Amino acid sequence: MKVSILQFPGTNCEYDTQYAFEKLGAQTEIVWHKSESIPADTDLLVVAGGFSYGDYLRSGAIAKFSPVMQAVKEYASKGGKVLGICNGFQVLTESRLLPGALKRNENLHFISKHHHLKVENNDNTFLKKLDNGDVVNIPIAHHDGNYYINEDGLKELEANGQILLRYTDAEGNIQNPNGSVASIAGVCNKEKNVFGLMPHPERAMEAVLGSDDGVKMLEGFLES
């Protein structure tokens, strides 16, 4: 399997992402944002976390104009699988590849810690190795992780099974760290080939570092 990983000025999780997928046996390639194409053998395209363009204007607001994003849109429109993690999720919402928006955390502070997530929908490539109701422990690290969507949009997400993950405690009870609507931590598009989440599964690959729950999350892509 070939995983291509986007890199913008300010991206800082591309090598963590590369390590995570290579640990799972995938081949990887880092793609600079000025590229006008995606490697032809790409099976999964990851928009990695960090602070693209220093989060100026809004997180992901400038990155969406990078040359590579047109190729990303074309790749996704043909059914290519895309995963946006943290800032990558922000880039995908700004680019309208995913519904909703990410705004400043409710408490106005940067949050960096492990946090539990409950799997809401595993009927997709990303989470198929997990069961609905499973709770995983995954690091979060964001300032603008407060997911927003209006009431009609939320109903549509629920009806289409597009809500992937919610923030909870270890028992699966809602515990919202940033004010996200309906405690949403991750969503996908209607076609279920574009995925986004604020938590960092690529940082949960080693039990000795606090959790290896990210392994099952990312393994789903390897069996697609």
From TrEMBL:
* Molecular function terms, GO-annotated: ATP binding; glutaminase activity; phosphoribosylformylglycinamidine synthase activity
Q: Which UniProt keywords apply?
A: ATP-binding, Cytoplasm, Glutamine amidotransferase, Hydrolase, Ligase, Nucleotide-binding, Purine biosynthesis
What pathway annotation does it carry? Answer: Purine metabolism; IMP biosynthesis via de novo pathway; 5-amino-1-(5-phospho-D-ribosyl)imidazole from N(2)-formyl-N(1)-(5-phospho-D-ribosyl)glycinamide: step 1/2
The record's Pfam families line, in alphabetical order, gives: GATase_5
Q: Which residues form the signal peptide?
A: none
Q: Which GO terms describe its biological process?
A: 'de novo' IMP biosynthetic process
What's its EC? 6.3.5.3, 3.5.1.2
Q: Name one GO cellular component term.
A: cytoplasm
InterPro entries associated with the record: Class_I_gatase-like, PRibForGlyAmidine_synth_PurQ
- Record's superkingdom? Bacteria
Q: Which catalytic reaction applies to this protein?
A: L-glutamine + H2O = L-glutamate + NH4(+); N(2)-formyl-N(1)-(5-phospho-beta-D-ribosyl)glycinamide + L-glutamine + ATP + H2O = 2-formamido-N(1)-(5-O-phospho-beta-D-ribosyl)acetamidine + L-glutamate + ADP + phosphate + H(+)
Annotated catalytic residues? C86 (nucleophile), H200, E202
Q: Where in the cell is it found?
A: Cytoplasm
SUPFAM superfamilies, per this entry? Class I glutamine amidotransferase-like (SSF52317)
| Functional description taken from the UniProt entry | Part of the phosphoribosylformylglycinamidine synthase complex involved in the purines biosynthetic pathway. Catalyzes the ATP-dependent conversion of formylglycinamide ribonucleotide (FGAR) and glutamine to yield formylglycinamidine ribonucleotide (FGAM) and glutamate. The FGAM synthase complex is composed of three subunits. PurQ produces an ammonia molecule by converting glutamine to glutamate. PurL transfers the ammonia molecule to FGAR to form FGAM in an ATP-dependent manner.
Quaternary state and interactors: Part of the FGAM synthase complex composed of 1 PurL, 1 PurQ and 2 PurS subunits.
What's the protein here called? Phosphoribosylformylglycinamidine synthase subunit PurQ
